[in-house]
Amino acid sequence: MNSEFKLTPVEWEIMENIWNMGGKPSTREVMEFAYPNGEKAYTTIQTIMNILVKKGLLTAEKIGLVNFYRPTRSRDEIVKSEMKQMVSRIFNGSIPALANFLLNSDEVGLDEIQAIKKLINEKENELKGNQE
Fold it and tell me: What confidence category does residue 3 fall into, taking pLDDT thresholds of 50, 70 and 90?
């Protein structure tokens, strides 16, 4: 199975809801959970879920007349795949270039920088501990 995945925004939306629901929801259950006010048609959701099955991100199990779906990958696996592709494509695979871009964006404030420093220190200590 392909380890690189690329989801469209609406596919992300559907997958996020399926991950949040847990279990093996049907199309109708996903629709009612994700779009309680009928923002998307049943047939639209069914089509997207069928595409996700073809991409290998969902499996479908037919019970009676209803398909029930289960994710084949965790959210973290898909995030990792998409981030790896994005860093490769936009930053030539350079994590420091990505970090530099993020740190120099207007949205990063002092609180975020302090939180990032803490994460970096924790990761550094973890890696140092693995070397001993």
Answer: low
